């Protein structure tokens, strides 16, 4: 059993003296007395998120643990403080405790002064003081980080922000709920078509139809393809549909292309100006006019772009947290997964597996959609039809496992220049958790750096 929180009591090199820990001894005494009289409180309060590790006084924490241990075996009318004392003595005998934290006379006194009605108030007070204690400990750790000769702004600031998230534990939100109480919401959703408040349009009619209006909050989307198939172009298309056309705050993290290249591609797609003309500086007057109009439309769009190299998961979390708070972020696109700074692990496969798992947790925690681009292995090139499969995802089968949707890109003319399907591209929905899979055919307009619905060609 843990008697102290992990953040408190962790020794730090060259740290100043730890300040006095926030605590409420009176509330702890009240709660310990209450659970002795009403043993069912340990279940009720735990279901509401109370953690006995938040006790700062050992003897009161051990009383809670003793009640947990014996509550189901107590006979009606038994003297409970005596049963608790016997349990504590048994733990002392088997070595679980080295000293008896509560004397018999104190147990008897607590039993007589118990006020079970005050237990919820006392539990809330203890929890608040524990949060304050973890916050103080976190501040102490931050001071130690800042004073360290090995301080690294990127790693230490991101790590400190991640640790700050752990200051407040999950409480009542983790409480179980009866399925019947959820049915009203089921009925309401069944008769209410999704809007942009609940879904993020993809920019493609058939994809929106297949995904019930677009990407959903909490989803992890994987876009897989071989090199030069247009992963980045597709990802920017999803970003443009969300941010520019629907005003949905979006973050694009590019580890492969620079921000100027991304801006060129976005401008080309929106203005229908050939990308190679823009790169050569030979855009004519009409093209320049269209670019100017597109720029006026793109300017106010909540499309955030970053091309910082070596992106790590802590740095991404810090950025997402900031934009979620300040801009209402709803969509994050990573280009691409295998270029991210992977955590230390015994193998590359395990490291990539951890990255994909953290991406899914990020989507759920912030209620956003996360789209990650991923390279496929050479499997498609070894097949006669060159069609990609979900199993072609490189380095980790857990990418497929963690993803809610896996979208594979296939362009027939990338393998056969004279293909009768030249200019076409397939969006192969290889996995769709909770929905059908399908193949959506689109038009690839590489000169404009975009994919479009076939009906728009």
Summarize the structure.
By secondary structure, this protein is α/β, with parallel strands linked by helices. It contains 16 helices and nine strands. A hairpin with a 4-residue loop joins strand 8 (438-445) and strand 9 (450-453).
What's the helix and strand layout?
Blueprint: H1 25-37, H2 41-47, H3 58-70, H4 80-93, H5 104-112, H6 119-147, H7 153-165, H8 183-190, H9 205-210, E1 220-225, H10 231-246, E2 250-254, H11 259-271, H12 275-280, H13 285-298, E3 303-306, H14 313-327, E4 331-335, H15 348-366, E5 369-375, H16 398-402, E6 405-410, E7 424-432, E8 438-445, E9 450-453
Parallel strand pairs: 1-5, 1-6, 2-3, 2-4, 4-5
Antiparallel strand pairs: 6-7, 7-8, 8-9
Helix pairs in contact: 1-3, 1-5, 1-6, 3-4, 4-5, 6-7, 7-14, 10-11, 11-13, 14-15
Describe this structure in words.
The protein is built from 16 helices and 9 strands. With 457 residues, the protein is an alpha/beta fold. The chain has a 9-stranded mixed β-sheet with strand order 3-2-4-5-1-6-7-8-9. The longest helix has 29 residues, at 119-147. It is elongated, with a radius of gyration of 29 Å.
Instruction: Report the order of strands and helices.
Output: HHHHHHHHHEHEHHHEHEHEHEEEE
The secondary-structure class comes to alpha/beta
| Number of helices in the DSSP assignment | 16
Q: Strand sequence of the main sheet, in spatial order?
A: 3-2-4-5-1-6-7-8-9
C-alpha-based Rg, rounded: 29 Å
Tell me the β content: 5-15%
What is the molecular shape?
elongated
Distance between the termini: 66 Å
Mean pLDDT across all amino acids: 80
Low-confidence stretches: 1-15, 170-174
Instruction: Give me the count of strands.
Output: 9
Question: How would you characterize the largest beta sheet?
Answer: 9 strands, mixed
State the helicity in percent bands.
Answer: 40-55%
